[in-house]
Amino acid sequence: MTTPRPSSLPAPPASTLRGALADYLSLRRALGFQLVNAGRLLGQFVSYLEQHDINTVTSEHALAWATLPTAASAHWWAIRMSAVRGFAAYLHSLDPSVQVPAAGLIGGAGPCRATPYLYSDAEIRALVQAADALRPRLRAATYQGLISLLAISGIRIGEAIALDDADLDLDRELLVVRNTKFNKHRLVPLHPSATRALTGYRHLRQHAHPRPASPALFLSGAGTRLWHSNINLTFTRLLDQVGLTRRSAACRPRIHDLRHSFAVATLLRWYRDGADIPALMPRLSTYLGHSDPQHTFWYLSAAPELMALAGERLQAHLGGAS
Hints:
This protein is mainly alpha-helical. It contains 13 helices and three strands, in the order αααααααβββαααααα. Strands 1-2-3 form a three-stranded antiparallel β-sheet.
């Protein structure tokens, strides 16, 4: 005998799966959860179900989607599956026929951190040059501007996607990054050359789309805000064209690593200049949008050259103290 379902919790029809996702995210966010990464992943998961005409969530489909990026680590698969499990549990409360993937279905959910792929200046220039061949012209300019901005500012890819045209302050030569990872705003100063480049991009964008469908700073060829999934696909193609491949099982080139590269390059420059690193580290933390300088100190372990310079600094200090 089937237990009657409370009238206040109707099971979502298959056609409203995306609506159910919106309700789920709204509910969780009302409880204080940000769900930036989970919201993006679940949007991709629902798109996967829609593309395959799948009307409900099953463990089989969740596993197939979670392991789609075949080159990814088991840890990343586990993160994807974890996002689906939360959504599936919500749907199951509305419709008991929805399957909730078992915990531990994918191993590797423990603490894990990918080894950053530190791009050289030459590699970044090669990626920007490869983006010039993209079409239409606005798409090429968008990816050239996006990659360049990530490399010279260290902002997160999600922050770059969320930038609106009004967030570029040309008079003060800075970006206003709003509602960041920790729900804060911050100002990111820009070099005059970056301001000039973004001004040129803005003119091209306005010519291509005088009345764009989105207020975003970076637009797609269709005049809409960029999607994280599409950026990753395009960036992967650019990596292939340039010939950049993984350096180890734990180190593969990602667009997020442009942020790591910026941070490491900054620290290397400070070390070589003999700067007071502990005094400057809070500035870099604020610039990057870290909640605590200890998160920024992690970059010290990202590059052997940094560790060597840190060792030399420590040795000099100990020698002077003896």
